[in-house]
Amino acid sequence: MLRIKNLEAGYATLKVLRKVTMHVNPGEIVTIIGANGAGKTTLLKTVCGLLRSRDGEILFDRQDIRRLSTEEIVFRGCSLVPEGRQVFAPLSVRENLVLGANVQYRRGKQAEVKNDLNRMFGLFPRLKEREKQLAGTLSGGEQQMLAIARALMARPKLVMMDEPSMGLAPLIVRDIFGIITRLRDEGNTVLLVEQNAKAALGIADRAYVLETGRIILQGQAEDLLSNRDVQRAYLGRDLDSETDI
Amino acid sequence: MNIDLFFQYIVAGLTYGTIYAVVAIGFNIIYNATGIINFAQGEFVMLGGMTAVTLHQILPLPLAILAAVIITMAVGALIEILFIRWLDRPSVLRMVIITIGISILIREASLHIWGEGVRALPYFTGSSETSIRLGGVFVSPQVLWVVGISAVMVILLNVFFTYTLPGRQMRACSANRDAARLCGINAKNMVTLSFVLSAGIGALGGSIVSPITYVQYDSGTQLAIKGFTVAILGGLGNSAAAVGAGMILGVLESFSIAVLPAAYKDVISIAILLLILFVRPSGIFGSSEAARLSEF
Prior knowledge:
The complex is a heterodimer. By secondary structure, chain A is α/β, with parallel strands linked by helices. Chain A folds into two domains: 160 residues, P-loop containing nucleotide triphosphate hydrolases (Rossmann fold, 3-Layer(aba) Sandwich), CATH 3.40.50; 67 residues, no CATH class. Chain A contains eleven helices and ten strands. In chain A, the strands form two sheets. Chain A has a six-stranded mixed β-sheet, with helices on both faces. Chain A has a four-stranded antiparallel β-sheet with strand order 2-1-4-5, covered by helices on one side. Chain A is globular, with a radius of gyration of 18 Å. Chain A starts with a strand and ends in an 11-residue tail after the last helix. By secondary structure, chain B is mainly alpha-helical. Chain B has a single domain, classed as ABC transporter involved in vitamin B12 uptake, BtuC, CATH 1.10.3470. In chain B, strand 1 and strand 2 form a beta hairpin.
C-alpha cells in the first residue's frame, strides 16, 4: 500500500529524516515509535505532502506521490489525522465531518456521505450527542475522536495517525486504541505514530523504531515488545533492578 | 440641537456607516482566508463604481451594475492569480507591500483610463432633490437603496458561509489551513475565491453609493482607510462586528460635523484608528487572546 524508500526531508537547513525506508501492507496496523524529535511527525507530514521531501521515493498504490499536492494525495486515499487533533474549532461537529468528506464529493460519491456520517456516529456515539456543538468546545478525547472520524469520512485506503493518545487520560486512550483495532478488523490500513510505545505495540502488527531520523529497528510488534533495547528505551522498564538471580 | 436635526445626523451617519461596513467586510473575507490585509480593497470599490458609470452609457442601470460587479470580480481573481497565488508562505510585510503596490497600479491605470473627472451613477429612484419624510427626518431614497442592498448582501454572505459547500470550505481554511488541506480542500483556490468575493462586494458597494458620494480614480484610498478603521474597530476577521463598528464610525463622523469644521471629518476616523491600535488592537468586539495568537 505505502512504500517509502531512502526518504530524506527536513526544515530549511535542518535535516530530520535520513534515508528512511519502510512499508505498510494492506490491512495491517503499522506503528512507528520513537522519542520526541525523532522525526515521526515529519515523516507523516512528508508522506501527505504538507512538507516537501528532498530525496527518496514515496509510493502509494504503486504510484509516486512525492511531488503531488496534499489535496491530491488525500483524494487518492491517503489521509492523516494530524498531531494535536486540529479540528475546525469554530465549526460544528457535523460540519467538521461533512468537510472531511470533501473528496467524496469530488469523486462523485456524495450519496454515500450521509451513510458514512451515520457510520461515524455509530462508531463514536459521543459525537452524535455533540453533533450541533462547536468542535472547539469538545473535550480533548472527543476532539481526537472527531479528528479520526473526519479523516475516515474521506474513505481513505490508508489512515495515518499522529499521536492520537497525546494529552489524553488512560481510559480514553484505551477507547481510542480499541477503535483503531476495530478499524483494522473492518479492513482498514493504519499507520500509527506514537510516543506511547507500550499501547501502540500492543495493538500493532508490525513496528518500526525511529531514532534521530533513522529507522534503527523493525519487526513484528510482539518481537519488539520483548526486545531488551526497546524495553529500556521506550517502555520504561528498569531492567537493571529486575534481578535475574 | 433639536431632535429632528439629531435624527438627520443619525441617518447620514448610518448611510456612510453602511459603506464603511461593506468595505470592512471585504477586508475581513480576505483576512480570514489568508491572514493578510488587502490594501487594494478600496480600489475594488472605486473600480466597481467607475465601471458601472461607464457601462451605464450603453446598458440599463441594473445590468450595468451587475456587469461592473462581474468585471471587478474577474480583476480580483486576476490579481490573486498573478501576484499572490504562486508565493509560498509569504511574510506579512511582503504581502503588505504587494497589496499596496497593486492598489497604486489600479489607481494609476484608472487615472489613465478615466481621467481625473468625478463621476456618479444617477439616483436609482428620483433625483438628488427627492426625499422621503420619515417622522421629522428627510431621507433620500438612495439611502434606502444603499442600506437595503447592503443588508441583503450581508444576509446572503451569511447564508453562503453557513450553508454552502464552498462557504464551509472557506471557513475551514480560515480556521485551520493545514487541516483543511488534509480534508482535500484546495486552499489556494479558496484564496482566489476570497479575492473574487471581496472584489464583488466592494464593486457592488461602490456602485450603489456612487450617486451619494461620487467616484473618482483615487476615491478608493479614502474608503480603504475608513474600511480598515472599521475592520480594526470591530476586530479583524469578524464581519458581524464590522457592521456594528461601521455604524459607530459613520455616526461619530456625522456628529463631528456638528461640533468641528467639516474638513476635520476624516481626522475622526484616523484618530480612532490610532487610538484602537494603541489601546485595544484586538478591536472593541474582539478577544485579545485571539489577537495575540495571530501574526498581524
